Give the backbone structure.
Amino acid sequence: MTASPRGPKNPRSPRDPAFWTPARIGIAAVAALTLVFIFENSRRTRIRLLVPEVTMPLWLALLGTGLIGVLCGMYFVRRR
C-alpha cells in the first residue's frame, strides 16, 4: 500500500495550516513588500548611462542595479 501524496507529510493546499512554514511566511512577506515597493516607486525618472540619458520607472532602475549586484556577488563567491 502506498502513501497518498496529499497526506499530512506533503501539504499542497495553502488552506492547510501545515503548508505555512516559517520559510513560506517569510517569502510571502518579502513578495508583499516587493509589490508595495514597485507600486510606490512607479514614477518615471531620468537616468544617465555613461553618455545616453534614458527615462524609466524608478523601480526598474533599482531592480537592474540590484540584479547586477547579485550577479557580481555570485561571481566573487564562486571564485573562492
